[in-house]
Amino acid sequence: MTDDAPRERAWYAVRCVFQSGWPPASEASCDARAYEERITLWRALSADDAIERAQAEAREYAATITEHPDTYLGLAQSYRLFDEPADGAEIFSLVRLSDLAAEQYLDRHFDTGQECQKAVAEDDGGGFGADLA
Q: Which Pfam families does its entry note (predicted)?
C-alpha cells in the first residue's frame, strides 16, 4: 500500500467528560458539581480523526443550554470497535490498573452514591439505568 492510498474508515467510540452547568451554583443545594460522561460513535479514518470530530461536537453540546451551559473538560478517550455496531457489540472499553479490592474499586469509580441514576425494574432485566427525570 502506498502512502497516498485511501484509508478505510472504522467505527470509533469517543468518551468526553463535561461539568454540568445545571443546577447553577447560585441554586445548588450543596457544593457538589455534576459531571457527565458521554460516549459518541464516529466513522473515522483514525482515532485522532474521531477524537477531533468528537471534541467539536462536545463543544457544541456543552453550549446547547444557553442559560447555564455545560463545560467540556477537554478529556476525550477513544476506542476502536472490532465489529460493526450491532446488538450486543462492545462499543467502549477502558482498562485501569488499581490497588483497590473489587468492591472498593466500584465504590470509588462507579458507585459513589452521587450518581444521577435509579435501579431498573427487575422485569426490565435488572441493572442500572440513567435517571434523567
A: DUF4288 (PF14119)
Q: Which range of residues forms the domain containing residue 121?
A: 98-133
Q: Is the pLDDT of residue 121 over 80?
A: no
Assess contact for 49 and 11: CB atoms under 8 A. Answer: no
| Per-residue b or e along 63-77, where b marks 16 or more CB atoms closer than 10 Å to that residue's CB | eeeeeebbebeeebb
Q: DSSP label at 79?
A: E
**Residues 4 and 57 grouped into a single domain:** yes
Task: Report CA Rg, the chain.
Answer: 18
pTM for this one? 0.76
Tell me what the mean pLDDT of segment 6-30 comes to.
80
pLDDT at 28: 58
pLDDT (0 to 100) of residue 132: 39
Instruction: Specify whether 75 is located in the same domain as 106.
Output: no
pLDDT of residue 53: 98
| 73 and 103 part of one domain | no
- Examine residue 30 and state whether it is found in any structural domain, yes or no: yes
Distance, in Å, from the CA atom of 5 to the CA atom of 18, rounded to the nearest integer, reads: 37
What is the C-alpha separation between 104 and 114, in angstroms, rounded? 15
